[in-house]
Design goal:
single chain, about 290 residues, alpha/beta, TIM Barrel, 8-stranded parallel beta sheet, 11 helices, about 15% strand, globular, binds 1,3-dihydroxyacetonephosphate
């Protein structure tokens, strides 16, 4: 059954671990992430970006694929199907109507008062239907689905406190130095600010841009109140590298089944998801 993120993230915050959000990119990706979570008895968040909505033929199609895949694979761990970086109230409501149990409204590019207003309206709509909401403040640098932010802007602690208090949002992505995509050098996260914000807001914090963050920094973020970590780029790169290797090793005659190519490309993805689950401490929780 699909669940909202509320209980799984509050449990993670209380018990000092984080739940991974693994973005999905196609049908087989759904199966790979679900199976990794099931094998390790870990809760899972399936992240759906704007690009994936188009690629996988719409919110309803994605919802139905996930629900039917869970049934087919006998998945009984908690799974949240989550809209990643929803850019408007309309897309958040459309995802909820399509059956998503969790959405992110990302108004971080808007003036604070507008971000607060829309987040509040999304929360009202979502909570009436038992759906969880993630909000964002500050700017996460890097690029995702072709949307580029060149600079990092740290979330302001007072704005974080006000946003959470006034909207009753379930978790908060407070940008503190992380980047979507690959880092140049080591990621420098604002740990002091993270501690301050966690104490002020008391809801689980979300760390975007999980690819390339050192394991010890992830552990430290978790100990400071981060209960959700988003990962995508490393899995996409792993799939592409595996498929490139597959074709390089072939003499040009044996690879004729696209199902096998897509499936075998996911072998390292499944392994990496399992490593992340282990690092985040979410295995054997259910
Ligand atoms: P990466 O692609 O950098 O791992 O970040 C994923 C993410 O934050 C999705 O919202």
């Amino acid at each position: 059954m699909l669940v909202s993120m509320k209980d799984m993230l509050n449990h993670a915050l209380r018990d000092g671990y984080a739940v991974g959000q693994f973005n999905i990119n196609n049908l087989e990706w759904v199966g790979a992430v679900l199976s990794a979570g099931q094998k390790m008895r870990s809760p899972i968040i399936l992240g759906v970006s704007g690009g994936t909505i188009k690629h996988m033929l719409g919110l309803k199609c994605i919802h139905d694929i996930v629900v039917n895949a869970m049934d087919y694979l006998d998945i009984d761990i908690p799974v949240a199907l989550h809209l990643d970086h929803g850019t408007s109230q309309e897309i958040c409501e459309a995802a909820i109507k399509a059956g998503f149990r969790s959405v992110m409204f990302d108004g971080s590019h808007l003036p604070f008062s507008e971000n607060l207003d829309i987040t509040r309206r999304v929360v009202e709509f979502a909570h009436r239907r038992g759906v969880s909401v993630e909000a964002e403040l500050g700017t996460i640098a890097g690029s995702e689905d072709g949307i580029v932010n060149s600079s990092v802007i740290y979330a302001d602690p007072q704005e974080c406190a006000t946003l959470v208090k006034e909207t009753d949002v379930d978790c908060l992505a407070a940008a503190l130095g992380s980047t979507h995509g690959l880092y140049k050098g080591r990621a420098k996260l604002g740990f002091a600010e993270m501690q301050t914000i966690a104490e002020l807001v008391k809801v689980p914090l979300v760390l975007h841009g999980g690819t390339g963050i050192a394991a010890e920094d992830m552990r430290r973020a978790i100990s400071y109140g981060t209960a959700k970590i988003n990962v995508n780029t490393e899995n996409m790169y792993a799939w592409c590298q595996a498929v490139k290797d597959m074709f390089m090793a072939d003499d040009g005659h044996d690879i004729n089944d696209p199902r096998k190519v897509i499936r075998d490309g996911l072998i390292p993805v499944r392994e990496m998801v399992a490593q992340r689950i282990h690092l985040f401490g979410s295995e054997q929780r259910y």
